[in-house]
Amino acid sequence: MIPNSIADLQNAVRSKQISVSAIVNHYLEKIETSSDLNIYVRIFKKEAIEKAKSLDEKIQAGNSVGSMAGLVISVKDVICLEGKEVSAGSKMLEGFKSLFTATALQNLIDEDAIVIGMVNCDEFAMGSANENSVFGPVKNPLDPERVPGGSSGGSAAAVAAGTCLISLGSDTGGSVRQPASFCGVSGFKPSYGRISRYGLIAYASSFDQIGIIGNTASDINKVLEIMEGEDQMDATSTVFPKFIPAKEKVVGWIPEIMNHPGLDTGIKKESNLVIEKLKEEGYELKSFKFPLLEYIIPTYYIMTTAEASSNLSRYDGIRYGHQTKEKVNLEDFYRKSRAEGFGTEVKRRIMMGTFVLSAGYYDQFFGKAQKVRRMIKEDLEQIFKECDYIICPVSPVRPWKIGEKIQDPVSVYLSDIYTVIANLAGLPAISIPIKTSNDPFASIQLLGPKGSDYHLLAQASEFSDKF
Ligand code: GLN
């Protein structure tokens, strides 16, 4: 048996109860037997076996190994690994090989974690169902007819299907938390700036963070400790001061969220049960007004599409990635390469983003959204003066059937309502499964004030034992 937590794994490897090679072989087999779920887009079999062998030799010889020796991870196809292709689920980047490794990933590799492969995702991390990928949709391991969530659907499915212990995803508006909740695992997005974004393919830079998907909050905590930190290559990365709780045992909840007309009645019931259970456990549940809720989705989609339209202008077909085969003049070359390389959803967002930034509309859309974003941040700061966490659902809807919403992008956008709050305000947030529920998709989200990451993870661990 392969230990199912990082702590057990570290012990088993150090005490030579299990070899790293046996761990790697176990996961490689799992990847093979779950291949119909379409999770992996690249498998690094040879390198993983070789690395495991060299670690085993060191351990046998009594030499020291890194603290993550024995940990097998997968990474979303938007995180760069030197010498390997990275394609962001897009034809636009076909054949592109990365020249360097993302800092946060390198930190894990330096501690001897093994990267077993890259996993499927929505194109340029845009989506909530992993259906916008050039590699085709990922199937949900809990129910293969359903979507695994997105955009890090491959990462959540990889952990849920037992093909690795940890998967790195990216979270711009919920892409780590929502798929984790759809697949019955835990997903964490750190405070903006805690993890370096260097080597993460950009979607909307002021929202993007690399996030961690695992089975438990304590596993996530261990990985975060290694990944985090200031990085010269990312000016927005920073070291956070130690977090001091505002009010222990006070948990906030927001009536506008819990009574939202779009919230599935089953999810509402499950969330209310969690709130009741926390009260029984002696927590004080305090309600807070959040009148800006109805502006959350428009603000998020105006700002992220604007940032995306600018970020994605670098894909011109000249320097790297897809090039049209047609013999055309320079301007048409750009146009055709981009038209052939990008998928429908990415094009839709580039159009929307250039529109909200265009002269004449900037003040009406982008400028206004920036102001609303500030107001959202300020409202949340006020709330966090009186409580340490906000508890709320992860998604207002349950995982839908593959193909069911492909013609209805707006309904998919609306389903991001509870996750994008954390990204708009740069806050840490985690989604954890409600283990006591009969519904395998039941989960709950905890949001904390900026910098409270470790406190939030500890609280999530404590809560997981209670429900
Ligand atoms: N579903 C959201 C979107 O499509 C979030 C994506 C993400 O976090 N990368 O923008």
Structure description:
Helix content is 39%, strand content 11%. With 467 residues, it is of the alpha/beta class. The chain has an 11-stranded mixed sheet, sandwiched between helices. Helix 2 runs antiparallel to helix 3, helix 7 packs antiparallel against helix 16 (453-466) and helix 10 crosses helix 12 (344-357). Glutamine (GLN) binds next to strand 4.
H/E element order: HHEHEHEHEHEEHEHHEHHHHEHHEEH
Count of distinct strands: 11
Oligomer: single chain
* Strand order in the sheet with the most strands: 1-3-2-4-6-5-10-11-9-7-8
Overall, the morphology is: globular
Bound molecules: glutamine
Share in β-strands: 5-15%
Uncertain runs are: none
For the terminal residues, how far apart are their CA atoms?
27 Å
Round the Cα radius of gyration to an integer and report it: 21 Å
Defining traits:
single chain; alpha/beta; eleven-stranded mixed β-sheet; 11 strands; globular; binds glutamine
Write a concise synopsis of the structure shown.
This protein has helices at residues 6-14, 20-33, 45-60, 103-110, 153-160, 177-183, 217-227, 255-258, 265-280, 296-311, 330-341, 344-357, 363-383, 409-414, 420-425, 453-466, and strands at 40-43, 72-76, 114-119, 166-171, 186-189, 209-214, 250-253, 284-287, 389-392, 429-433, 443-447.
What order do the helices and strands come in, and which of them pair?
Layout: H1 6-14, H2 20-33, E1 40-43, H3 45-60, E2 72-76, H4 103-110, E3 114-119, H5 153-160, E4 166-171, H6 177-183, E5 186-189, E6 209-214, H7 217-227, E7 250-253, H8 255-258, H9 265-280, E8 284-287, H10 296-311, H11 330-341, H12 344-357, H13 363-383, E9 389-392, H14 409-414, H15 420-425, E10 429-433, E11 443-447, H16 453-466
Parallel strand pairs: 2-3, 2-4, 7-8, 7-9
Antiparallel strand pairs: 1-3, 4-6, 5-6, 5-10, 9-11, 10-11
Helix pairs in contact: 2-3, 5-6, 7-16, 10-12, 10-13
The structure holds glutamine.
